[in-house]
């Protein structure tokens, strides 16, 4: 967990200068926004945030043992921490340009 947030910040810090060198800085904000939204949606799917009230059908895909559930939750947290810097950057960029 301690490396997922710095990894997100590092990829964000590397993405924008590359897009500036390619001559299209707006594309960097779009890619970052896609990474942020995609990560938040993926983490939400892992946490089961988008499930209906009836959890019978959802229980079929959940690991039975406690270690499997911890692994799924850990992956969701890592994904969320990785995508938060990208989402924050794209959202801030959007607010400042509109």
Description:
The protein has one domain (4-92). Helices cover 76% and strands 0% of the residues. The chain contains 3 helices and no strands. The chain has helices at 4-22, 25-47, 66-97. The longest helix has 32 residues, at 66-97. The protein is elongated, with a radius of gyration of 16 Å.
Which keywords apply here?
single chain, mainly alpha, 98 residues, 0% strand, elongated
Briefly characterize the structure:
With 98 residues, this protein is an all-alpha fold.
Number of helices: 3
- Sketch the major β-sheet: none
- Total number of strands: 0
pLDDT averaged over residues: 85
Distance between the amino and carboxyl termini: 34 Å
Order of helices and strands: HHH
Supply the number of structural domains.
Answer: 1
The SS-based structural class is mainly alpha
Q: Which percent bin holds the helix content? A: over 70%
Task: Work out the strand percent.
Answer: under 5%
Shape by Cα distribution: elongated
List low-confidence stretches.
none
Task: Compute the CA-based radius of gyration.
Answer: 16 Å
Strand-helix topology:
Elements: H1 4-22, H2 25-47, H3 66-97
Helix pairs in contact: 1-2, 1-3, 2-3
